[in-house]
Amino acid sequence: MVRAAVLPAVGAPLEIAEIDLPAPGPGQVRVRLAAAGVCHSDLSLSDGTMRVPVPAVLGHEGAGTVVSVGEGVTGIAPGDGVVLNWAPSCGSCHACLLGEVWLCANALTGAGDVYARRASDGSDLHPGLNVAAFAEETVVAAGCVLPVPDGVPLTDAALLGCAVLTGYGAVHHSARVHAGETVAVFGAGGVGLAALQAARIAGASQVIAVDVSPEKESLAREAGATDYVVASDTTAREIRSLTGKQGVDVAVECVGRAVTIRAAWDSTRRGGRTTVVGIGGKDQQVTFNALEIFHWGRTLSGCVYGNSDPARDLPVLAEHVRAGRLDLGTLVTERIGLDGIAGAFENMVAGKGGRALVVF
Predict the structure, then answer these.
(1) pLDDT in tens, 310-353
(2) Helix, strand, coil distribution of the chain in percent, nearest 5
(3) What is the DSSP letter of 143?
(4) d(CA 293, CA 30)
């Protein structure tokens, strides 16, 4: 038996419980978690903004050590350090054949499986977004693990599984920031802080961080922000003022609210690019009139998982870590145990801190 944070029903608080994990079956791997990041997507799953079968063990950003492997698993062995990949590509759907593996139609089919049972009553449990990282150990499909790159500490490697792939990818793959361009990042949580670092790595000449919390300024500047704007009704005007009244070349929205998406669009220069990373609910309606779409000539695009291919991008991120360009530790503002996840959810709702990291 292992301890895990169980979501019993949508909208219910997480419960720390003992669960029974089976031995890995064919094509499966059992992993002992070293750390798991608490992502805003976990909050969105718990409150029903995103739907998954419940009861479930959430957590999709993690890293750990392989304990055992099932029949037919090759390339991974007990003792190996691995990063969990919550969105494995099938390789055969339309998106995968186009090379857009982050849009794989079958990536989340495993979330509907029963992967474990609650020890107290034997009730079925689902693996959240495939990997159920809010647990001391988990059993996942072999496609859900990737080797931890050399030179990246195992605990820090957890952040590569979502926050860094998403934030870095939003800047480099979706927005395609070039050296000398100006960038605004809306939201200074885990993904936003990763995006700020990515903009700095890309050579942006000016990096403006935007957040509702004045207390996050030091975090944002440490990540690479040259300017900091406390979000308000005048955010777009302030950003234009900071950029010679032009607006930024690129705005990256990491919040998922209609008001911030609209502010990001309004902050972008004529002909600029606005990339939306944040996951909002269906009630978050963003409106544009036809004339402004023509006049401003901006590009507005969604971004899933940073438009990343983890197998391709993890070695690139690792090289940035080894060279000192990417500091994973600066994303983490709180290190907690399983019992601290509920408090981390409360901090996310309140807009406090960067990434909380569950350390096992």
Answers:
(1) 999 999 999 999 999 999 999 999 999 999 999 999 999 888 99
(2) 35, 25, 40
(3) G
(4) 50
pLDDT in tens, 256-266: 999 999 999 99
CB of 223 closer than 8 Å to CB of 190: no
> Percentage of the chain surpassing pLDDT 90?
94
Q: List Cβ neighbours of 59 (8 Å cut-off, separation of 6 or more).
A: 5, 36, 38, 42, 128, 131, 132, 133, 134, 135, 358
Which H or E run includes 27?
A: none
β-sheet bridge partners, residue 64: 33, 82
3-state secondary structure 314-343: HHHHHHHHHCCCCCHHHHEEEEECHHHHHH
Per-residue DSSP letters for 149-189? PTTS-HHHHGGGGTHHHHHHHIIIIIS---TT-EEEEE--S
Please report where in the chains the tokens 């361009």 appear, as a residue: 181
pLDDT of residue 281: 87
Tokens describing residue 34: 């070293």
* Residue where the block lists tokens 């759907």: 93
Average pLDDT over residues 191-217: 97
How many angstroms separate the CA atoms of 348 and 187, rounded?
A: 11
Report the C-alpha gap between 102 and 270 in whole angstroms: 29
Residue bearing tokens 């859900």: 144
Upstream peptide bond of 214 is cis (omega within 30 degrees of 0): no
Chain position carrying tokens 């495939």? 130
pLDDT band, residue 50 (cuts 50/70/90): confident
Label the pairing between strands 61-69 and 182-186.
unpaired
